[in-house]
Structure prediction request, 337 residues.
Amino acid sequence: MGIKSSISLYSLQYQYLWGKMSLADIFQFAKNLGTDGIELLPDQMLHGAPEPEEDTLRMWDDLVTKYPMGLASDDVFLNTNLFANRELTKRECVALMKKEIRLAHRLGFHTIRMVSMVPAWILEPCLELAVEQDVTLNIEIHAGLGFGVKKTDEYIEEMLRLTSPYIGIVPDTSLFMRRAPRVMTEYCDRVLGGLNPDIVKYTDEVFESGTDFFQLNRKSKDGMDPKLKSLIKNDADAFYASNISGYENRSLHELDDLAPYIRHVHFKLYEMTKEGEEYSIDYREILQYLHDHGYQGYVSTEYEGNRWVLPDHEIPEIEQVTAHQKMIQKYIREIEG
Prediction:
């Protein structure tokens, strides 16, 4: 089957929130782009999830029939803070995750992406139902919440212990950024009062050297790279330093041992350039890696440049997602024929 393109509907959240596009409009948009599939956040776009009413489910069935596309991934958030005075117990968490598994099956999905930091102990008590419902359980490994972070490492250890085809991972390409997002830098500079040019210059040097501040900060005694800390002169610099520490510049080969467990991939999008490339991430490199390692699942556009749009500017979700999908589909054709 090969690698397939998809769109996370999260990428169009403001179009949906502001009533500019209905769920049907979004389906039609994705279909017209030639994308192979869609990724859904039921909490965001299906009223009543994880137990929507029958009218909502019939509406979903009608859309899936009218706009036939693959169902790439169902995105699940284990909402442990439903109550003001306590977190959910383990038993309540398992019951909630089982509702999500049943909903994914009912909607037609075979893949669940669990948000980063979902505890590893959720896997074993939910595995039997996941197999029964033919739905895989996969944690998102995201920059700032990825390799070397305790909960992520615990999940990977449990995944390897259980060795089930119904347990896997969803790498997020924020792990493999080769430059800092330009839109984030511009936002901090223009909206928050002006960045120290030296902090931007140093950031570029760090990324060009092949590392990042997530890794440098972890090596520092006080949790922040000393030179980065010394360059913070105002609130804009502090905000910038905090955000830049959440982007990683890792080698793709860190995935080598985990490649057989990849069930889905998030293709992060911050900014498409006029040349048709993502500014911060080398997607030809990533698609070639996935191809070389036999990956045959979906890769989903996940637009997060929306949070860095300047005030009084339109959020260009349609334009950015369109350009990103064209790039992805072009590289898949070139690499796979």
Q: What stands out?
A: Strands lie at 4-8, 37-40, 70-76, 111-114, 136-141, 167-171, 265-269, 298-303.
